[in-house]
Amino acid sequence: MGTAKRRARWAMFGVLGALALSGASRPRQVAAHAQEPERPAPRATPDLPGADLPDAPLSVNRAPQLSIPSGDFLPFYRGKDGSRPVRVEAFRIDASPVTREAFLRFVTDHPCWRRSRIGRLFSEPSYLGDWAGDLDLGSAAPSEAVTDVAWFAAKAYCASMGARLPSTVEWERALKVIGPSFAVTSGSATGGSVAASLWEWTRDFNFLPLADGDVNDSAANLFCGAGARATDASDYGAFLRYSFRSSLKADFALKNLGFRCAVDGT
């Protein structure tokens, strides 16, 4: 079998593996999304619950953060003109994903994001599905990462903390700087296999950064030839993360999808 065919087969297995690990059973939605041009992540509007949340002092209920210095980052996918790094400014990012107990404080203070009150426009019915009630974690461990949280709710939480969701490039650069311990497995606070990690929302989850800044390729075009377009074809974990993100929609609430917050500067 030729090199091109082997790469194409490897790419297809990667996409299937990412979707299997995600726990999502939405083949129609994923297929339709994969054929659409990449587009920026949804932005908050005046009708979005909590869009007018005031910025909170960074010392209020903030998780420990890691300082990521400014530097160059080589995107996972090469652009049409080859490989070229992009500049990433310094930022700080939570050392671990937001926990259930932290999110419980958020929905306590902001009732519009409780399970029984969030609108279906902003989340699937599976939102906070492992909780026993609006303000009841039930048997879910308070200190583990909160999951089943839609992008809209994750964004609102970070805004309430005077922060924001990290961009895809920031998240990936943090992983490169910190190493495998930055990734989290099974919702716990311990590091593990990057390929099998808890998935995390990013601010621009459905945006594919390319090395030359060209974002016109569709997800289908990229992932069908991922072996040829990847800057490091051996980084299977990165391929899974990028392919998984491309399958998401902002209202998805998945059992192994969490988030963490970031702020500008060091």
Task: Report on the architecture of this protein.
There is one protein chain. The chain has a single domain (3-39, 51-264), classed as Alpha-Beta Complex (paralog of FGE (formylglycine-generating enzyme)). The protein is 30% helix and 8% strand. The chain contains eight helices and seven strands. It has a three-stranded antiparallel β-sheet with strand order 1-4-7, covered by helices on one side. It has a two-stranded antiparallel sheet with strand order 2-3. Helix 1 (3-22) crosses helix 8 (236-246). It is globular and about 50 Å long. The relative contact order is 0.25.
Keywords:
alpha+beta, single chain, 3-stranded antiparallel beta sheet, 266 residues, paralog of FGE (formylglycine-generating enzyme), 8% strand, two-stranded antiparallel sheet
Second-tier CATH architecture: Alpha-Beta Complex
What proportion of the residues form beta strands (DSSP E)? 5-15%
At the fold tier of CATH, the topology name is paralog of FGE (formylglycine-generating enzyme)
Integer tally of domains: 1
Straight-line N-to-C gap: 50 Å
Provide the helix percentage. Answer: 25-40%
Runs in which pLDDT lies below 50 for 5 or more consecutive residues are 6-46, 54-60, 187-192, 210-221
Strand order of the largest sheet: 1-4-7
Residue-averaged pLDDT = 74
Counting copies of identical and different chains, the oligomeric state is single chain
* Cα-based radius of gyration, to the nearest Å: 18 Å
Q: Briefly, what CATH class?
A: Alpha Beta
